[in-house]
Amino acid sequence: MRTAITSTLVLGALAGNLYLSASAQEVQRDVAIVSEDVGSQIPAFSYQEGPESKLLFRGTALVPRGEGTGEVEFEDGRARIEVDLEKFPDPWKLGPYTTYVLWALTLEGRASNLGTLPVSRGYAELETSAPLSQFALIVTAEPHFAVTAPSKAVVTLNLADRVKGQQSTVRTLLERADYATLKPQSIDPKGKVPLDLYQARYAIAIAQAVGAEELAPQAYARASGLLQSAEKAQASKKYAERKDSAADRA
């Protein structure tokens, strides 16, 4: 789909100096808690080489019914990670978000984006990996997939089930994004508008909010142009459908 491809390019443009400049002003640093709904102590585990560990995931106050399981296997310097969640609402029901993101947190509070968890009928799953042996796992709701710092919308966190390793604690985050001023979009329940187009709109809105037109005018202009192309492609597709439908009835 041309719309989807163009929207992804918008995020690509913002992932460079434009988005980094925007993040420098949008992100809170050295926060003492993971979120307003989660305590300041998140379990982290030092995984042993070889044996597979089992995790549980508990929903926060944002998603109290949410739950899940996870597996971690550390071998050859990388941790293989599998996460399965259930009873989770669509992320846009929680605010200006389009997707869930899985994060690995080091003991120092550095967060790594491990990938997105698309939700279907309340279920979400992800298989990924990280070059870490000691970390905690959390899931947040995010406005788009390319975020570099977790939002305040923490929806679930890991707990020990059968872990082969030592437990420790993550008490702070080095960076956390706050989207309190980001206006939520109305998501089309029929799915006629691709999610990555909503993500591109959010990315531009975030950039605008921090003055990206002045911070990185060339990158901002390119991203804005790509978004306009995506919007035109989406509108053109809808028009063609209406035109074809009218022709069929003639």
Any overview of this molecule?
The structure is a single chain. This protein is α+β, with helices and mostly antiparallel strands and 250 residues long. It has a domain at 28-177: Sandwich (Immunoglobulin-like), CATH 2.60.40. The protein is 30% helix and 34% strand. The strands form 2 sheets. Strands 2, 3, 4, 5, 6, 7, 8, 9, 10 and 11 form a 10-stranded antiparallel beta sheet that branches. Strands 1-12 form a two-stranded antiparallel sheet. The longest helix has 33 residues, at 217-249. It is globular and about 55 Å long. It starts with a helix and ends with a helix. Mean pLDDT is 83; it is low at 1-7, 17-25 and 241-250.
Topology:
Layout: H1 2-14, H2 17-26, E1 27-31, E2 42-47, E3 52-59, E4 67-75, E5 78-86, E6 99-105, E7 111-116, E8 124-130, E9 134-142, E10 154-162, E11 165-170, E12 173-177, H3 195-209, H4 212-215, H5 217-249
Antiparallel strand pairs: 1-12, 2-9, 2-11, 3-4, 3-10, 4-5, 5-8, 6-7, 6-9, 9-10
Helix pairs in contact: 1-3, 1-5, 2-3, 3-5
